[in-house]
Amino acid sequence: MCMYKSDFQPIMKRYALALKIILLMAGVMFIVRSFVLPYSIEQIASLLLGILLMIIYIYLLMIIPSAIELDNEGITIKRVLGKKSIPYSVIKEVFAYNGVQEDVRYFGSNGFLGYIGIMGSTPYGKYYSYVKNPQQQVFVLTQNKNYLLSCENRDIFIKELSNKLSK
What we know:
Blueprint: E1 2-5, H1 10-36, H2 41-63, E2 65-70, E3 74-79, E4 83-87, E5 91-96, E6 104-111, E7 114-121, E8 125-131, E9 137-142, E10 146-150, H3 154-166
Parallel strand pairs: 8-10
Antiparallel strand pairs: 1-2, 2-3, 3-4, 5-9, 6-7, 7-8, 9-10
């Protein structure tokens, strides 16, 4: 079992915690503000904006990867809340990729705390992106869905995964 840490690029690593705290505080402040205001359209707007910011925060916590593990059954993307598994039996190909910045974003974050969500590219179609560091991208083509991951030591990860696929 091999564990590969999924971390932000160095410049973003410094600001990731601060951005998460700011997003959380903004959501809480809008919700609190909605109870302080006299009943009006501003109160409703403030409450809805606060709830929206909290939903975005929880969504980011649910899908931002913390590590990628190669276990006996497949790739496991470990997240703060839950995990995502990709069995070896469905993986067709794995390779280094460097194009997430140029790809189309259908739903998700296009650089804010990573490239997370549903993206699309011309050669590979729609894929699910779990990229925190765009300099360490790994594309995983499967029979059903495609995934773009990032982890430290991308080349070692690809070599280990390729060895497991060839067995």
